[in-house]
Every structure is written in C-alpha cells, then in structure tokens.
Design a protein that fits this description.
heterodimer, A: alpha+beta, 2 domains, 56% helix, B: alpha/beta, Rossmann fold, 6-stranded mixed beta sheet, 4-stranded antiparallel beta sheet, 10 strands, 27% strand, globular
Chain lengths: 405, 252
C-alpha cells in the first residue's frame, strides 16, 4: 500500500475507537510531557547557575594557599606555606595579563549602626576588588589606594547589610561600629544575589585590607589573592604566569610542588555545569521511565486490538493483503498513535513548564532539540512496542482468522 | 475449449496432522470449472467441502495434487504470491458477510483494490461505485454495515468480491445468515451476475440453494461422489415475484 493509504487506513481504525485511542495515547502524552518538563527545569537551572557564575565576576582568578591534598614528603621542608602581601604586590607589578589584583582577608563580627546590629563578614580588599568582581556601586564611592595605605577606617556596605542596618535610608556618610571600632560608611554596593551554593554575596562589608588586618583581625597573612584579566581568553595564560610569579616569590626550587593553587572561574563553572547536567539527565531518565510505561501501554492495547480484530485481519488477508501489509498497517497505527501522543505531550510539556516556571520562579528553557528528541523518541516507542503485536497480526493464518469469533 | 477452463484441480488431497492421527479431509479431488458456469458444491459437514473451498480460494495448500487457476499453477506459490492471486483472481463471499464494521459500504468495497499491485488502486473509488451499482446499492454507498439489512450487507460483500473483476466468485454458505426471502434475493443476484458471464462457485449444504446452480458437485468423505448438471434449475428472480412473506405482527 502507498504511504498515504496506510496513514489513512491507520487513522480510520484509530478514530473508530476514540476512547481507547485516547487512553492509550495518554501514556505517551504523560511520558513525553514529563520528559519535556523535567528537561526544561533542568536546563533552566543550568542557565540560572551559569548566570550566577557570571555574576561572581568576569575572568576571575583565585590564588589560595596550597591545599592539603598536595601533601607529601617535600612539603615538610618548606619554611612557609602562606600568601603574603608581597605575593599580591609582585603579581600586580609583574603580570602582563592580570590588570587587577587584590589580596583578600576576612573576619566575621558584629556590627552596630543605624537602626540595629548585624553579624556579617568583613572582607579586607584592595581598590582593585570591585574591578575584579565586576561589582558596581549603588551609591557613594569605593576607597582608593591612598586610603588603603593610610589604613583609613572607611567601609563600603553590601546591599543586605545596608538594608539590615539602615532599612531604606542611604547609609553613605553614616558611622557604624565594627567591634567597637568606629568606621565611616563611604558607599553601598549594588545587589549581586546568591552564589550557586546559596550564599548571599551581598551580606558583606568591604574595607581596606590594611585596616582589617591591623584593627580587626590582627593577622598579618592574607587568605587568598584575587585577580582578573581584561579579556576572557587570557585567563589560562594569566594563570600560568601567576603560578610562575608565585613560585619565584616563594623561592620554590625546581623539584618542589606549588604551595598554592591558582583556580579560575571556569573550573567552578565546569563543576556547576556538570552537576546540573547530571541533574538534567537524571530528571530526564526518571521521566523516560514514564515514557517507557506509556510504550508498554501501547503494546498492551495493540495486542488487545490484534486479538479483537483477528477477523478483520482474516478478511484483509482473504482479499489479498500480504503479511507485510498487515504488519505495516498495525505498525503505522501504533506509530501514528505514539507520534500524535508525543505532539500533545510536547504541547502539554510546554504549558506545564511555563506554569511551573511562573509559579516557582525557576527559569525553564525548552530547546528545539528537546522537542525533536522527544518526538523521535515517542515514534521509536511506537515502532518498538508496536512491532511485536504487528508481527503477531501478520503471522495469523487467514483461515483461522476468518473463523475467529 | 481449453481457454474455457477457469480452474482445474487434479488429485487434490489434504491431510491434517492431529497429533498422532492423520485426518484425510480430501482424498483426490478432480474438478474442472469452465468460464460462465455456476456451480454448487454440496456435502454434509465433514465431507471436506470447507477444505476444498480453502484450497480453491488459495487460502490453503493442498497436501498433494495440482491446482490451476485462470491459467496459473498455484499449489507451489509463496504466501505473498497467493495473497496476490486472491486479490486479483478470487472474489470471496462469506456466510457472515465479513464486512469491516464502522466503515462505509463504499470503503468496504474499495478494500481489495487498496492491496492491488497492478495499478488499479488509482481507480478504486470509481470501480467500487460501479460494483455497488451492479448489486443495486447505489443509494447506500455511504452507509455503514450496522445501518444495512442482512441482505444489503451481503450485497455489499458481493460488490467487494466483484470489484477486482476476479476469475471466479467463491461463495461460502452465502445465504446461511439470511431469512428465506432475502436468500432468494441474493440467489437471484448471483444468477443475474452469472447471466452476465461471471463464474460462480457456491459452497452450501442446502440442496434447494444448490438447485439454483447449473451444475452440482457433491462431496462425501473427501471424494466427489456426484457431478452433474441441474435438470430443473430454480429461477430465483421468478420466485421473487411470487413469494409471499407473512407480514410481521404490528407491535401492540
């Protein structure tokens, strides 16, 4: 039979049993719909995390003291294993790729001022920090290098801290007390939101690292050094360069391992990316199970249908249908059912995904690939689960089939 | 003369293996049907007439013997070839009509042409209309079987059998599910078609139906025991004009 005739014959018998067809398709509809929704949520989460990572700062490079995982015999001989201001200055001076470098120290303490008090993190940084983090000011100004050298008691508030202490009024120019040390608020940062692991980046006070070291923490060492490059493509080269500068600064011999780690944002992004990819895959896999169940539903109904229509098959064979014609007819029937079910499922998935997205505030994304894969998959389900019943029909003996009651 | 032969069987045997015992349904049947004949095959149940019908209808293979249909030797054909032979050379009419439910008369009649491999598919609709006109159902083309009387359903089935212009029309107890008046109507239609030159083979166990044919072949225990022309042939069309069916009692 010709393709058009086949589809016509299949549609006819599908339409003759509307209720049953509908229930059969429901399995596929739910299966495909679930896959679409799950993948949409997964991909939405992925793009959201990507956004947050971009928010952390562009082209960020973080230098931390050597991790304990690099421990070994050689480390015992090292005289120091820490980052110093000297390191940061040397990178700033010598690096060709990194244009902004800031040491970072921090401490957590109680601050009093405005309408109340708040426990937050005080980060000691250099003026380069807001360049590195790509962090604009909402009001006021950031401290400059001379204020830093003079260890001035000036701070810039993160958005959350500003709101907690001063509610809606602008804190610029106000005085607050950090562990009984009075400081002046000279600016407020724009809100930056959460990190991918849920920390509020705006719950912070930025101050010159010199001031934090001498007046608050009392520690001379710094916890990490942050740097950034103007162009994203330069990050790997900058990393190598910084590593070399650091080795020189730490007087490491050829055979000694790095006593520091240079990471970039991509490592973090890659990790987050692969986590969400796994999550998306997992969600899709779970949803696929319902598609599989839907497929088994199709097989079940097709088997019932073959038994029920044994006489029809007998008639068709008696008037000249070949086994292959019958096989194709039933196969096309199950494919038509599963593809139509798949299309309804895609529509339903679209709808549900946008409703879920609106209700929960999660971003959802549906790519054309997802739709294509879902449709191809549902057609394959139709072929796979329709084949056995169809073959059963095609192998019927016409004489027995005609006599079947 | 040889051109006149539509089908010819020689020494056809059929043995069914039922576990340990073998059942000889046919024990060597020689049968020749000429173009334009109307033949009735009669016999009690178990005489082998259904088996013979299946073999003639190319639904089954003979265990032994040869079978020529319309100049083609069919006993060694593959299943697909047999399907094509059934499609092109045989028109089936069954006792239970065997129409597709929820499918219009026209679509039912078209059905054999959908499986046609000789290019007549394009003309399916036209040929189906023509066949329905021949059986007098021009005004019922769009009705589904459930909307038709038994006699009309059987006429649709006859139209379906005719639509591919087969070499032979094979009717298996065509009046078995019909009342006596409708039976006569259907037999009258068969005689009319036969008069137009169509070769018809009716399998039945009723002698008065066989009397409508021009030749009767009787089977018993898998053998032809009688093969003779009908001396006093019934004229169904004539009976139809005189038949009186008692009026159904009006609902009270």
């Amino acid at each position: 039979m010709k393709g058009s005739t086949l589809i016509k014959v299949a549609s006819q018998s599908i339409l003759k049993n509307k209720m049953r067809t509908l229930l059969t398709m429901l399995g596929i509809v739910i299966g495909v719909g679930a896959v679409i929704v799950m993948v949409a949520i997964g991909q939405g989460a992925q793009s959201q995390i990507q956004n947050q990572i971009d928010n952390l700062g562009t082209n960020l490079i973080v230098i931390t003291p050597g991790s304990s995982s690099s421990g070994g015999v050689s480390r015992g001989a090292q005289t120091y294993n820490r980052l110093t201001i000297k390191d940061a200055d040397k990178i700033k001076r010598e690096s060709l790729y990194a244009n902004a470098v800031s040491p970072v120290v921090w401490t957590r303490t109680q601050v009093i001022g405005g309408n109340g008090n708040w426990r937050t993190s005080i980060n000691g940084v250099s003026p380069d920090y807001i360049v590195i983090r790509n962090w604009p000011l909402k009001s006021g100004r950031f401290f400059d290098a001379s204020e830093m050298r003079a260890m001035r008691r000036v701070v810039v508030l993160g958005h959350t801290v500003a709101e907690e202490l001063f509610a809606d009024s602008d804190p610029t120019g106000a005085r607050i007390q950090i562990r009984n040390v009075p400081v002046e608020v000279i600016g407020v940062l724009e809100p930056k939101g959460q990190t991918p692991d849920g920390n509020d980046q705006d719950d912070v006070i930025l101050a010159p690292y010199t001031s934090v070291q001498t007046r608050l923490s009392g520690w001379s060492r710094i916890f990490q050094i942050m740097a950034s490059t103007p162009r994203p493509g330069d990050v790997p080269r900058a990393q190598e360069e910084i590593a070399a500068i650091m080795r020189e600064s730490h007087n490491l011999a050829e055979w000694e391992e790095n006593d520091f780690t240079v990471r970039n944002q991509n490592d973090l992004a890659d990790a987050a990316q692969s986590t969400t990819e796994v999550m998306t895959l997992l969600l899709a896999a779970i949803a696929s199970i319902s598609l599989l169940v839907g497929g088994i539903g199709i097989m079940n109904i097709m088997l019932v249908s073959v038994t029920e229509r044994t006489r029809e098959i007998g008639i068709r064979m008696a008037i000249g249908a070949r086994g292959r014609d019958v096989l194709t007819q039933f196969l096309v029937e199950s494919i038509v059912m599963s593809v139509i079910g798949g299309m309804i499922g895609v529509a339903l998935g679209f709808g549900s995904a946008s409703i879920i997205g609106r209700a929960t505030g999660w971003s959802t994304a549906i790519s054309p690939e997802t739709v294509a894969i879902a449709l191809v998959f549902s057609a394959s389900v139709g072929i796979f689960f329709g084949f056995y019943p169809a073959r059963k029909a095609a192998r019927l003996n016409p004489i027995d089939a005609l006599r079947y009651e | 003369m040889a051109n006149d032969v539509v089908m010819h069987t020689h020494g056809v045997c059929k043995v069914y293996n039922m576990g340990k015992t073998k059942v000889h349904a046919l024990r060597g049947v020689d049968l020749t049907v000429r173009r334009g004949e109307m033949i009735a095959i009669i016999g009690a149940s178990g005489s082998g007439k259904s088996t013979l019908m299946n073999i003639i209808g190319c639904l089954d293979y003979p265990t032994e013997g040869t079978y020529h249909l319309d100049g083609v030797q069919v006993e060694n054909m593959t299943k697909n070839q047999l399907a094509d032979i059934r499609n092109q050379k045989i028109g089936f009419v069954f006792q239970g009509f065997n129409l597709l439910a929820r499918t219009s008369a026209l679509e039912n009649v078209e059905l054999p042409l959908l499986y046609d491999r000789t290019g007549r598919k394009m003309k399916a609709r036209t040929l189906a209309r023509e066949a329905l006109r021949r059986v007098g159902l021009s005004d019922r083309m769009d009705h589904e079987p459930s909307e038709l009387s038994g006699g009309q359903q059987q006429r649709v089935a006859i139209a379906r059998a005719l639509v591919s212009s087969p070499a032979i029309l094979l009717a298996d107890e065509p009046t078995g599910n019909l009342d006596s008046k409708t039976s006569v109507e259907v037999l009258s239609l068969f005689q009319e078609l036969n008069a137009q030159g169509i070769t018809i083979l009716i399998v039945t166990h009723e002698r008065d139906i066989a009397a409508c044919a021009d030749r009767v072949i009787e089977l018993r225990d898998g053998l032809v025991i009688r093969d003779e022309a009908v001396a006093d042939r019934r004229n169904a069309a004539h009976e139809l004009t005189t038949i009186s069916v008692p009026e159904a009692a009006p609902p009270s």
